[in-house]
Please model this.
Amino acid sequence: MTTTRRLLLAGSAGAIAAPLAAPRIAAAQEAPGVTATEIHIGSTNALSGPASSYSVISRCLEGMFRRLNDEGGVGGRRVRFTVYDDGYQPPRTLEQTRRLVERDRVAFLFNQLGTPTNNAVHRYVNQRRVPHLFLATGADKWANPREFPYTMGWQPSYRVEAQIYTKHVLEQRPNAKIALLYQNDDFGRDYLHGVQDVLGDRFRAMVVTATNEATDPTIDSQIVQLQATGADVLICGVIPRFAAQAIRRVHDIGWRPMMFMTNVSVSVGVVMQPAGVEKGVGLITSDYRKDQSDPAWANDPGMNEWRQFMQRYIPDGDLGDNNYTYGYGVGATMIQVLRQCGNDFSRENVMNQARNIRPMQLATLLPGVMVQSQPDNYNVIRQMQLQRWNGSSWERFGNVIEGAGS
Amino acid sequence: MSAIQDTPTLAAAAPRASIARRSVWLALGLAAALAPLWLLESFHLFQLTMAVIMSLAVLGLNIVTGYNGQISLGHGAFFAIGAYVTAILMAQADWSFYATLPFAAAVCGMVGYAVGLPALRLGGLYLALVTFSLAVAVPQLLKHRALEGWTGGVQGLFLMKPEPPAWLTARVAITPDQFMYLVALVVAALCYLLAWNLIRGRIGRALMATRDHPTAAEAMGMDIAALKTRAFAVSAMITGVAGALSAAAVEFVAPDSFTFLLSISLFVGMVVGGVASILGSVFGGLFVLFVPNIAESISRAAPGVIYGIILIVFLFVLPDGVAGLVRRVLARLGGRAS
Amino acid sequence: MDAFLLQLAAGIATGGIYASVALAIVMIYQATHHVNFAQGEMATLSTFIALTFIQAGFPYWVAFGATLAVSFVMGALVERLIMRPVQHAPILTHVGVYIGMLLIIGNLTGWVFGYTTKVFPSPFEGGGPMFGGLLSAHQLGSVGVTLGVLVLVYLFFTKTSLGLAMRAAAYNPRSARLVGIRVDVMLALGWGLAAAIGSVAGMMVAPIVFLDPNMMLGILLYAFAGALLGGIDNPPGAVAGGFLVGVLENLAGAYIVGTELKLSVALIIIIGVLVLKPSGLFGRVVFSRV
Model:
C-alpha cells in the first residue's frame, strides 16, 4: 500500500510540474510530503508534562500557517502542520519523529522543542536527509553545517548570550568577581561554557558557581552561598520560576551585584512582575525580540501586525507570554523559506533555501537584528542588544552586538 | 509477538493440555512474534521493538511488586542504570552491544540487591515512597560532575544499535530496524523464560507466600530476608536489561530520558497489564508504549489526565488487568467448548 | 552577617515550607493511616482555586476561607468516590489510585490554569525583609499560620470527641465501629480536613516559590522526609522535622555534597529514618501484632 501511495503522490506532483522545466519535474517527483495542493510539515513539542508551557509555540505556528492558508498558501499549496506530543522525553521524540518521517511522510521537520529531545533525533534526521529546521532550543550545537547539514537552529545560542554578558562585564569591571548561578541541565550548562569561553584561564580565579535543580523548591541557599563569596557580578541561567526568586532574594538580602539574567527568563508578566518590578531595577539581559509590554513598541507597525494576528487567530492567547513573539518570528522565517522555494518543495531545495536566507528584518525582532543564513553559517540570528530593567520596562542600551558565529 | 511468552501461562492455566497442543501454541506464538518483521514498515517495527523492551521492564517490576508484594515506584532508576551501563561501555570503551548486556544485568542486579536491603525493613507505602524518591534522584545523580566523564553529563551519550552480522545479511535482506527487533525479541524471550521458570517453581511459590502470608512463610522455614532481597536483585536485573536494549534501540541516553514519569508508566503498565502475571507484563509493555499515543489522539490538551483515568478505571473494573480478562474469556470459551 | 548563619536562616525559611506540607501529610495519616502521593497536586489545585477567587475580586481572607471549604469538600468527595470503593483492596491498589490521582489532578490543573508561573498574593505584605533579608514578613507569617494550624490540629485530635473518633477510626476501624463510631464518615472527614490543611500549605508556599502546576513536585519529597523524620503520626514532630530537613538540606548543599545532590540528601534522610528509627525522632513506637 505504501508503494501505491508513493506512486499516486509522484503522479500528481508530476502532473503539476509538467509544464515546468525538466529538472524541476525530477525534483518534484522525489518530494515526500508534497502534493499538488499541500505541503505537510511535522513537529514535536511538549504538549503534556512539566515542559508544556512551551506548547503555546506550536499553537502560534498553527495559527500562522492557518493565516498563510487563508491568504492563499504558498506555491499554490496549503500547508498542513502536524505536531505530536513527546512529553519532553527523548525516546518519545525519536518515536514521534519517526512517525512523522516514516508513516506520515512529512516534507520536513520544523521547530521541534528542546535540547535533549532534538539530540535524540539529530543523527536520524541527518542520515535520512530530512531538513530539521529552526529548532526551539538555544543550544549552540545546531549550527554545525559540516557534520550535520540538515539541522539548523534559529535563536542566538545561550552560549553566545553568556559570552556577551561576560564581555560586557570585562569592559565595565575588569577586576570583577563573577558569581554564576545556572540550572544543572543542558540549558544552564551553556551559560557556564559561554563564560568559560571568554575568560579562559582566568575563569578559575574570577568565577564562583552554584547550580540548582528543577526540583529545588527555592534557591535561597545558592544565593546566600554566592553572596558570601563577595562577588560583585551575578550571571543567572535559570528558568523563569527561579529567575523571579533570584531577583527578589538578591534584592531582599541587600546584595547589589551587577546582575545579568538569561533572556529565557525576562518576560515582564512571568518574571519581573512576580519578582516585584522595583526589585529588578538595574537588571541586565540581552534580547533579539521586542518585548510586547514595552511601551516603546505600543505603536510599532511590526508589533501591531503581531497583535492583529493574535487577535484574529489566537484570541484567547496570553499576550504577556513572549513565546508568542518567539513563535511569530520563527514562523515568519519558515514562511520566507517556503516562499523562496518557488514551486520546488523537495527536501533538497527546502534545505538549500533555508541555508540561503538573505538578511531580513522580522516584525517581532529588534531593529537591526537580522535573520539570515549562509551555506557555511547556520547561526540564523547572530545579533542581540543589551537592555536594562528600569522598573517598568526594558531599556535598550549600546549597539546591536554580533555574537560569535558570525 | 506475545505468544511465545504467554504459552506457558496458558499451559499452566490448563495443566492437562497435551504436548501437541502446546507445540501448536508455540508455533503460533513464534509466527506471531516473527510476522511483524515482514508485515510492518520500519516505524511500526521500531514501536514494536520499544513495546517488547517496555514489556521486559514491566516484567522486572512484576517480579518484585506483583509476585513478591514489594511495591516499587522507582524501577525507572534500574532501567536508567542498565541503559547507561550499556551506553558507557559502548560509547566510551567501544564494547560490542552483546558484551555489555551481561554487564548491565550484573550491575543492575547488584544495585537492586543493595536497594532490597533497606526495603526489608519497609512496608508497603514506605517502600513505594523510598523507591519513588529513588526515581527522582537517579537522573540527577547520572549527570553529577563526578560521573560526567563517563555519562556525558546533561548532554548524554550517543551510541549505535547493533548491526546485523555479515553472515545474516549475506543470506537475507535485513534492515537494522528488523535486526534490532529480533535482538530485542530474543533477549526478551530469554528473560521471560527465566522469569517463568523462576515463578512456576519452588521459588515462585515462596515469593508469593512471603507476599500473602509472611508470618506463615517464615514459620515454614523460608528465609524471607534472602527471598526479598534476591527478588529485588532479579527484578532490577531484568528491568536493567530492558534499559540496555532501549539504549541501543534509541541510540541515545540522557538524564531526561529517565525521569520519574518513566517509573510511573512502568507501574501503570504493570497494573493495567495484570499484576503478578507474566502474560500481563506483555500487555503492560504494549500499554506503556501505545496508550500515550492513543490518549493524545483522544485529547491533545491533557494526555496525562486520560492516562490517570485509565489507571483508576482498571483498578476499579479490572483489578487483575488485561491478562485477567483474557484468562477469563479463554476460560469461558474453553468451558463452552468442552 | 556570617555566611553560616545566613545559610541557617535560608534553611529555616525553606524548612517552613516543608513543615506546612509535612503537617498536611501527617494529618491524612492520622485520619486514614495512609500516605497520599497526590497530596501535593491536590494542594496545588486548591491554591489555583484560591487564586481564581482572589482574581474574581474577593478579599484575601474571604478567598482563603472559601478555598478551605472547597478543598474540604474536594477531599471528602475524593474519599467517597475514589477511595471508598477500594477501601479493602490491597495496598498496591491504593498506591495505584494515588498515582492515578496524581496524574489526573496534576495534568488537569495545568490544562485548566496553564503552565506559566503566576504570582500569588500574601496576606502578610508590608514590613520589609528581616534577618538579613532571608525571612520576609510573609515567611514569618506563614510559619505563624503553620504553628496555628498545628495547635488547632493538636487540640482537635486530643481534646474533641470527634478528633478522638477520627483517630480511632483510622487506627482500628473494626473496634471503632463496635463502639459506635461511623468509620466511613470519619474517613471522609479526615480526607476533607487533610485537603483543607493541604490548601493552607499551598497558599502559604505559593507566594514564596511562585505558583505553577508543578509547584509541589519537589517540595513533596522534602516534606515526606520531614514528616518521616519527625514521626509520621506526630504533628508537632512533623513540623519540627520539616524545619530540620530544610536546615540539613541547605547546610549539606552548601558545605558538604554540593547543590546538585540536595535531593539525594532528602532521599538519604528518608531511608535512614525508615531503617534506623522508623517511628521518627519524636514518634511513638507502634507494635503491630500478627
In short: Chain C touches chain A through 42 residues (CB under 8 Å).
